[in-house]
Amino acid sequence: MKKLSVILFALIISLASCKKEKKEIKTVETEVTKTAVVAPKKIKIALSAKSGSDVSGNVVFKEVDGQVSMTAIISGLTPGQHAIHIHNSSDCSSPDGKSAGGHWNPTAQPHGKWGAESGYHKGDIGNFTADENGNGTISFTTNEWCIGCGDETKDIIGKGIIVHAGEDDLTSQPSGAAGARVSCAGIIQ
Length: 189
Fold this sequence. Notes:
This protein is mainly beta. About 10% of the residues lie in helices and about 35% in strands. The protein has a single domain (about 40-185), classed as Sandwich (Immunoglobulin-like), CATH 2.60.40. It has one helix at about 1-20, and strands at about 40-50, 55-65, 65-75, 80-85, 125-130, 135-140, 160-165, 180-185.
């Protein structure tokens, strides 16, 4: 009987120790990151003839990852070099396009070639060539513009785009002596 008591005692202790065993529960936290897909900002505008010309075309501005690209396809030009600039206003109501104001120059720099150390307007895009049929294309990309960001030194919304009859000499102040404004469009959404 003593043997049975010892066995019974050992069994009770064994069971008791099983009850005291802690089951460890692990909690795993998962972090969910949401990634927003931002569509590129894009504006397509139509150029209207000014100053008695037949110059027309389209300009597309597109912003992706802080870079704004501009592509202009223009027809009705005389063959040769022509200037294209961003001007202060989207108002293209006057027959000569002068209602768009002067070059967009929010940083008060002298007129010049884009990127020049001596300075340039934010609207000083430059020149492009029209072929023998009067068709021309220009593409331009910069991080110095934005579309609708609200930064007065970068935002092109509310400005105008002007195509000129002649070539920008890149030095004459304040506009480069590019001649008449032969086409205009407001950069509006």
